């Protein structure tokens, strides 16, 4: 979009927050870059230039606006709408892969050469993977500077900088302030336990939280997830250790309280929470497309801004999807809770009732099949999935190839369309994943006056947003997944 000069100018002059994260406005006279909705008086069009990423603006010598904080914009929705190389790379960069494995590790995960990844990413984002990761580290550093009392040495290490000097230089270059000056600009943060941070996760309005949080809570695994004091809480498995997060809906943001065992995991934890709640979506674009259908339009109008509840761990959700085959929600939660107690990693949660991190594929690979209280056919399905995940043959992570993952899943015993598309929707994050065989979806379609023969062809009108259409169809039923839990 940054190449459409007139459209970008109109968005800046209108201070349209829908375009925050889509592009960044650089002001030639002040050498500052902003988000589209920056509250200051817009510059003259002849003094504007536009960049596709904050990293590209930084590479061109612009520094971040102190008023609108463009580095904290919601992410561009296109990275979660697409399955091509650049989109996969951007999801992995947000997940911290460059910081932990370098650009070579990123390229290996994507199955391309370093040169190919560099070329494609730079062509679309105006900056290479290292610069994009550097911009992310700068944002993480700012969060730690402003929300914790950590020493600057600890902040630099936690944000992923190789040295304090690099940390100081980057903060000055990006924010035009030293780390000490940046901390002095904010009020003293409320005292919290070591490793605990209180953050705000922005999103594009509107957001309809009922089905989003209702689904997560209604299907939550005891010991791993809970609803407490008006917040959804769960444990996370992160590269450097476990964590606990509490997410609470607010006006224009999601309140996020993170308790990390290692602060180096901050940016990865934020990325996974945003992915879980689909916070980088463009709800106006989705709603406009679905509302054009005369049957779905009234449902969209009644609840604009529905998001697709996703997951913080693709492998975890896939295992839970198998456990939920042909059983009730309550039975699926019971099966999952047994696995958690027997094979999950214990965590200490002084604030609530969270006890474990969901077991990873390596731990589940050690399961004794006789200990599983389920039919033999489902045992084979579960163990086949776990073997594929543990061997690395099946990738359901942020940078996965959606089509290849579907093909691998279909080849496994016991995987029908419902299970595969559920995993595509929640684990892979495909916005067009669709569940025509789901009972709730079929009942809703009948209620809209669609016969089974008409339903499949009619649903083609909802592409590429059929996963969002499913949320609206589910909402026609009386189920806890459609309601925000009581505080």
Automatic annotation (TrEMBL):
Protein name per the record: DNA-3-methyladenine glycosylase II
Cofactor(s) the protein needs: Zn(2+)
Top-level EC class as recorded in UniProt: hydrolase
Organism: Amycolatopsis speibonae
The keyword Methyltransferase is assigned to this record: yes
Limits of the HTH araC/xylS-type domain: 87-185
Taxonomic lineage from the root: Bacteria, Bacillati, Actinomycetota, Actinomycetes, Pseudonocardiales
Catalytic activity: Hydrolysis of alkylated DNA, releasing 3-methyladenine, 3-methylguanine, 7-methylguanine and 7-methyladenine
EC number: 3.2.2.21
Pfam family, any one: AlkA_N
Family matches, as CDD domains: ENDO3c
Keywords recorded for this protein, A-Z: Activator, DNA damage, DNA repair, DNA-binding, Metal-binding, Methyltransferase, Transcription, Transcription regulation, Transferase, Zinc
Matching SMART domains: AlkA_N (SM01009), ENDO3c (SM00478), HTH_ARAC (SM00342)
Stored InterPro entries: Ada-like_dom_sf (IPR035451), Ada_DNA_repair_Zn-bd (IPR004026), AlkA_N (IPR010316), AlkA_N_sf (IPR037046), Alkylbase_DNA_Glycosylase/TA (IPR051912), DNA_glycosylase (IPR011257), HhH-GPD_domain (IPR003265), HhH_base_excis_C (IPR023170)
